[in-house]
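ping. complex inputs:
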Amino acid sequence: MSTPRRSSQGIGGKDTQQPNKDDALPSELRAKDADAPTTSEVDDYLASKLLHPSFGGDPTFSKGLERANENTIPQIQVSPLQGQFLSVLVKSIGAERVLEIGTLAGYSTSFLSRALPAHGQIDTLEINDLHAKIAQENFLESDLFPFPKIHLGPALSTLKKLQIPEEGPYDLVFIDANKDQIKDYFIESLRLVRKGGTIVVDNAIRKGRIVPSAKDDPTIEVNGLRDLFDWIEKDGGKTVLSSGIQTVGAKSWE
Ligand SMILES: C[S@@+](CC[C@H](N)C(=O)[O-])C[C@H]1O[C@@H](n2cnc3c(N)ncnc32)[C@H](O)[C@@H]1O
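pong. complex structure:
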């Protein structure tokens, strides 16, 4: 396992800096077509066309973000389109039980919950009291059903104590917290998710820094992610079938 050296992040495990509007646009494309829209502009277009009134277009979801902002909670949640992608995922695999690691103010949780059937279950893990409090207010405001259960405390100890729900294992786990323990979160998630279930790991690219280079100076987040990728490589497909997707857009290259 590699040694942590430095961190580039705020508490949420994501860069707190606002992404530069153009920084995720492939330079090859920018060089060929200086007038090409930025990836954020494309996100705006897609959002204007695709956000559903009960999901990304739900005004209570936006109000939840405002409440988070008023309480100086960092704006490091998924984008509306990413959130709605989680909803699509929940529905397309017919998920009934979802586990989330990293609640923040409950924005992604709201998308996950809204996509579940009424008899479903959603558990979300958060270390920060204020984040949990605001998330709880946001869940009430959005009248979520199933109502997300917040487990306050360090995610790894919560995960180790968490039992497989009586109705059956989780169908989907969304991992979106600190990256330095991500391999452990992943392994615990494997214990809790059903065979054939889905685990989504957010922010696994670090603007490309996961790739070792001659001038390598990995952050603790990059080291954490590399530990996970090494584990998956070593597993050799015995336990998991995985893929990696680079995204661009309002949340930059991730
Ligand atoms: C990127 S934010 C989650 C964003 C949220 N999933 C969303 O998209 O709306 C990460 C969250 O993980 C929490 N977190 C960081 N370290 C943690 C830990 N060790 N245990 C539990 N939660 C942790 C942070 O407090 C923060 O609220």
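Residues 32 and 108 are 36 Å apart (CA to CA).
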